[in-house]
Amino acid sequence: MGRIRAIAVNVLSRLRDAEAVVVASGSCGAMLKVFYPELFAKTPHLDAARSVSARTWEFSDFLVTRLGVSDVGARFPARVTFHDGCHGLRELGIKQPPRVLLSKVRDIQLLEMKEAETCCGFGGAFAAKFPMISTAMGEVKCASAAETGAEYIVSNDSSCLMHIQGLLSRQGKPVKTIHLAEILARQ
């Protein structure tokens, strides 16, 4: 735990003066917002961890909730479905902000999959320790996405997208993954 805290103290130091910490990954956002205060409980760094936590935002939540922005002028002519990453959904409570942003993208068709809130099976160390279970969970996610007829699976968590794209590629499926920010950057 000492080495982990040493690295985390460096992060706290670097983010000390940031007005806002905007993270494009639910997993990374949850680490700063939820788990840093737990990591530094009963240490001299707890106040700094709480301060960073209070200023940390997941990307879509920052745009929609903090800035009140729902339309960034993006255009993406495709059928998409959205994957709710576990940390963004369960730890940060992010469900609607990405959908609000996607609803304003010109020429996009959002097709909700039945298993949108189901874990894709990545989970970092989980995928390494339990590869067969991880793969099976990811295959459920891929099948659910395929049922929608979507061309793209969108998420606000890059690790989920990497795992899902790996499974899709191995299966020879034409569906692609894309981060929400990549869609919002298209004009």
Helix and strand layout, with pairings?
Layout: H1 2-15, E1 21-23, H2 26-39, H3 46-54, E2 56-58, H4 59-66, E3 75-82, H5 86-91, H6 96-103, E4 106-110, H7 125-129, H8 131-148, E5 152-155, H9 158-171, E6 176-179, H10 180-184
Helix pairs in contact: 2-3, 4-6, 8-9
Note poorly predicted spans.
none
Individual helix count: 10
In sequence order, what are the helices and strands, one letter per element?
A: HEHHEHEHHEHHEHEH
Spatial order of the strands forming the largest sheet? 4-3-5-6
What's the main sheet like? 4 strands, parallel
Helix content: 40-55%
State the CATH class of the largest domain: Alpha Beta
Radius of gyration equals 17 Å
How many structural domains are formed by the residues?
2
Assign an overall shape: flat
The CATH architecture of the largest domain can be named as 3-Layer(aba) Sandwich
- What is the residue-mean pLDDT, rounded to a whole number? 96
Assembly form of the protein: single chain
- Structural class by secondary-structure content: alpha/beta
Molecular structure report:
- α2 packs antiparallel against α3, α4 packs across α6 and α8 packs across α9.
- The chain is an alpha/beta fold and 187 residues long.
- The chain folds into two domains: 63 residues, no CATH class; 114 residues, Rossmann fold.
- The chain is flat.
- The strands form two sheets. It has a four-stranded parallel β-sheet, sandwiched between helices. It has a two-stranded parallel ribbon with strand order 1-2.
- The model has no long low-confidence stretch (mean pLDDT 96).
- The termini are far apart.
- The protein contains ten helices and six strands.
